[in-house]
Records
---
Amino acid sequence: MQLDQLYQEIILDHYKHPHGRGLRDADDPADRVAEAHHVNPTCGDEVTVRVATDGEVLHDVSYDGMGCSISQASASVLHELLTGRDADEAYRVHEAFVELMSGRGQVTPDEDVLGDGVAFAGVARYPARVKCALLPWMAFKDAAARAGVGVSPSEVKA
Amino acid sequence: MTSIAIPPGMPQYGDVPRYDVAKVRADFPILDREVNGHRLVYLDSANTSHKPRQVLDVLAEHYAMHNANVSRSVHTLGTEATEAYEGARAKVAAFINAPSADEVVFTKNSTEAINIVAYAFSNASLRPDADPRFRLGPGDEVVISEMEHHSNIVPWQLLCERTGATLRWFPVTDQGRLDESGLAELVTERTKIVSMVHMSNILGTVNATSRITQRVREVGALLLLDCSQSVPHMPMDVVDYDADFIVFTGHKMCGPTGIGVLWGRSELLAAMPPVLGGGSMIETVTMAGSTFAAPPARFEAGTPPIAEAVALGAAVDYLTGIGMRAIQWHEKELTAYALDALGTVPGLRIFGPAVPVGRGGTISFALGDIHPHDVGQVLDSLGVQVRVGHHCARPVCTRFGVPAMTRASFYLYTTTEEIDALVAGLEQARKVFD
C-alpha cells in the first residue's frame, strides 16, 4: 500500500492547518442558521457543521469536531469549497465529492469542481476511511436541509 | 529491565510452564500471509483470535463427515452430531471446571449470553410466581462498572428501563483499575445482580473479584463475570471464582465465530424462565400452552451452531494441550516487554495499568495528538494490525478524555519481534504526522 496516496500533502496540510475551523454566528442577522452533529459510531469521530444562508447563498459553512486527519481535513476542505457559494453550486460540489468517495478509486475527480477535494481520491480506495471523509459532508447536508436549502439527495453507503 | 534474584525455596523463574511459540505459530496458517507487502503482524487478538489448523480441520470434518441436526434424530449421523455437540459441552465444562456439563449453555456469543440473563430477569419480573432472585422492579438495583464493554452495559440499561430498576456502576481509577472504594454503598440489599468484566477489553485490567464476590454474598445478590477476555488467556475455575454466571465467546479463544457460552450455577439456570422460545427448548407443547426443558436445552431454542460448538471443543483441546498456565505466562512476559518497549516511544500515553500485574496482554494507548485512525492506517501499511476506535467501551474513552484509542492485543502466538514491529510502526506514524 502506498501510504502517501491516502495521506496526500494537501490532506495533511488541511489537517495541521485547518481552514475556517470553529462554529460561528451569522454575520447577517437575517440569515437562517442551522447545524447538524454527526458521529461515526465505529470510531467515535464527531463533527458539527453549521450553515448560515439567506436561502440562496451559503454565507458561511463553519464547523467544529474531533477526529482523524481524514475527517478533519475533509471538514476544512468542505468549508473552503462551499462557503460563499450558491446553494445550486454547492449541490454540484457535494454531489461530485460523494461520487468521488463512492467510486472505490475508479472516479477521476474534476479539480475545477472539487478544488483541494481532489486530494481525497486516494481515500476512496480505503473503504474503512470513506466514512471519515464523508462525515462532515453528510453533516453539512443535514445542516443545509435544516436551513432550508436542499443539497444532494443521494444517500451514500460507505 | 532489571533482574531480581528469587530466594531459594521460592518458585523460580525457570519453573514457569513454557511452550515453543514458533511451533505454535506453525499451527496457524494465516500467520504466514503478507499484508501490504509486509509479513503479517497480528496484534488484534482481543478483537478476534486466529484459528489453528486443528480447529479448522475439525470444523471441515464435521460438515464433511458428521453433518446432521442434533438432539432429534435416531439415525447414525444424527447420533454422531449429537455426541460431538454434547462432547464439546463437556469439554467446555471441564475447561472452566464447571461441576456439570449441564451448566454450559451454548449461545451465539458473550453478548447473547448476557442478554439471556438480562431477559430472564425481565421475564421473571412479569411473573409473580417467579423466583424472587430474578424479579426486578423500582427500588431494585443492577450494578455494573465503567469499564464494561457495551455488551455488558446496554442489556442492563434496557432491563432497567423495562423494569424500573436502577443501574449503578463502579468507577474507574486514573490508573485504569476498578474503584472499589464505594463497594459497601454501591452493592447493597437493593442490589439484585452485579455484572462486571473480569478482564477489560480496552484497559487490559484484570479485576480482582474476591472482595466484590464477598459483598455480593453478604447482600444476597447474584454475580455475573464477563470473561470474554479472560477465559481465552488464563485458567478459569468457576468454583474457585465463586461466580453465579460467567460468559465468554469462542472466536476469541481459537474457536469459530457464532458460538459463545453462558455458564450458570445449575440451580440458578433451573430457576430462570426461558428467553427464546422454539424447538428443542420445550418439554411438551399444546395449543393451550407449553412446558419447558431443563437447562441447558431451555436456553438453546432452535438448531444451535453445531459445527461451531464442535470446533470450540477442538479449540479447548488445543489450548488445554498447550496449557492455560503457560499461555498466561507467555502473555505476561509479552506484556512486560511491550510496556517497556512502548515506554520508549516519545509522546505515547498508556491507558490502563502501566505495570504487568493485574493486567492482561491488551494495551491501549494514545500517540501524541495523532488520531488512532491515522495511527492504525500507518501501522496497517506496514502489515501491523491493531484495533482503533472506542473498542465498544465508549465510557472508558470518555473517562480518559479521548474519543478513541489505539489498542494492541496479544495471544499465545504473539512474539516480541511483533511488538518491535509495532514500535517501529509507531515511529513511522510520528514521522507522517509530526
---
Amino acid sequence: MSPARRRSPLHPAYWAPLVVLLVVLGVLWQVGADRMPYLLPPLGDVWSALKADPGYFVHNSWVTLREAIAGLLIGFVAAFLLAILVSEVTLARRAVMPIAVVLNVTPLVAIAPALVVAFGFGPAPKLILTALICFFPILINASVGLRSVPAPVLQVFRSVHASRWEVLRHLRIPGALPYVFAALQIVFPLSVIGAVVAELSAAGSAAGLGTVIQIASSMNRPATVWAAIFVLALMGSLLLLLVTVVERRVLRWHGSR
Amino acid sequence: MTGAAIHLDGVGRVHEDTTRVVALNGIDLTVPAGRFVSVIGPSGCGKSTMLRIVAGLEEPDTGAVTVCGTTPRQAAEEKRLGLVPQQPALLPWLTVLGNATLPAKVNRRHNREPLPDMRALLRRAGLGDAMHQRPAQLSGGMRQRVAIVRAFGLQPDVLLLDEPFSALDEFTREAQQEQLLELWGERGATVLFVTHSILEAVRLSDTVIVMAPRPGRIVDVVDIDLPRPRTQELIRSPEFHAYELSLRDRLRDAFEQNKHDEAAS
C-alpha cells in the first residue's frame, strides 16, 4: 500500500481535494446565480431560507424520513421472505422471477400518480411506492446470497441430516448477509427517492420535503426548493453512512467489506 | 464393535451429465468396524463418487450399500457419519469453536450423548489458542484440522475423508496425518480415507484399496501389516518402502491397462 493511502482522514492530503472542488463549485454556483437569477438562487438565499424556519424543514424532513424508512422496512420484509421462498422452491422461482424482472424494468416513479389516485393523499401511496422501489434489489441480492453456500458445506450439513430450516438458519441466511447489505447500500438512498417522488405526485399532501419542493416551486421560491434539496441530500448521505456503519459491525468476518 | 461397518455389494453408478461416464462398476467392498481404509487411484476412478455414495449424498444406480447395518441416509440421520470434504468447508462468520460445535446444533434429536467437550478436543488438536479466531485468520492446515475435529466431535461410527490434505504442503500434511492418527487412536471409528498419495495411504491405513478408471473399479486390496504407531523410523524402513513400491506398481498397471483400453477402443 502506498503511504498516501494510509493517511488519516484528518490529513490535508485526504480532505483538501474535496474542499478545493467544493469551493470551485460554490464559486461557479454564485457566478451562475448572479448571471441567471432564474436558474439558481444565490447560496446565501438558500441558507437564509433554511435559517428563517429550521423547524419547518425538520418537521418535513421527519415526515419524509418516516415514509422512507417505513416503506423500506415493508419492502425489505416482503422481498426477503419472497427471496427465501424463491430460493427454496424451484416452482416459485420460475413463477416469480420473470414478474420481478418486469417489475424492475418498469419505471416505478411512473406509477406514483396512479397510486395517488388509488390511495389518496395519505401515507399509503408513499409507503407503497417506496416499498416497491426497494423491493427488487433486495429480492435479487438476497436470493443470490441465499443460494451462495458452497457445495462442500452443504454436504457436511446433509451428512448430519440437517433439516431445511437448519440449513436456512445456520448457512443460507448468515451467508446471504453480505449480499443483503450490498442491497441495503443501494436501497437506503432509493427509499428517500421513493418517498419524495410520491410526495411530488400527491400535490395535496400535508407535509414532506417533496411537498415543500412542490409548493415552493409553484410559489416561485427557488431558495426554499434548493434548501429542501440540500436537506434531502444530507438525509440520503446520513442513511448511507448508517448502513455502512452497521455493515462494518455485522460483517466483521467478511473480507471484502 | 464387530462386523462390517461399510458394505458395498455390486455398486454401480453412471454419471449422466455429459458423456455417460461409468463412474463405478460392480464395486464389492467390505470394511470391518474400526479399520482405517484408504482408497487410492488416479483421478476419474470414482473414489470420490464411492465416498459420496457411502455418505448418502449420492444414490447408486445398481447394487446395495449398507453403513452400520443400515442405509447411508439412515446412518446420516442417526448422526453416525462424520464427513471431512476436500475443502475444510468452515463457516467464515463463526469462530473455530462455533464451527466445531455446529453439527451438535442441527438434528439435535440424534445427538450422541454425552456430547464431547469440544474445547478439550480442540486443545488436543493444537487449536487451543485459535479457538476464538475465525477461519480466515488460520492457516490452511489449521482449517483442515478444525474440519477433522468437527467430524470427530460427532463421535461417529464411520468417518469419511475426501482427500482432506491434498491442498496442503508436504510438511503441514505430515503433521496433519500424525494428528489424525492420534485422534483416531483415541476416539476410534471406521475410516474411509480417499487420497491420491501413496505415501499417505501406506502411512495411515490398515488396508489400501486400489482403484482404476473407465469404468471405475477396484483392482486390488492391499493389507498394510505394519505396527502402530507409525513412527518416522518406520516410514524410513524397508518394509514401508516395499509397500510403497508395490502400490506404485499396481497403480501403474491400472493406468497402463487403461491406456491400452483407450487405444483399443
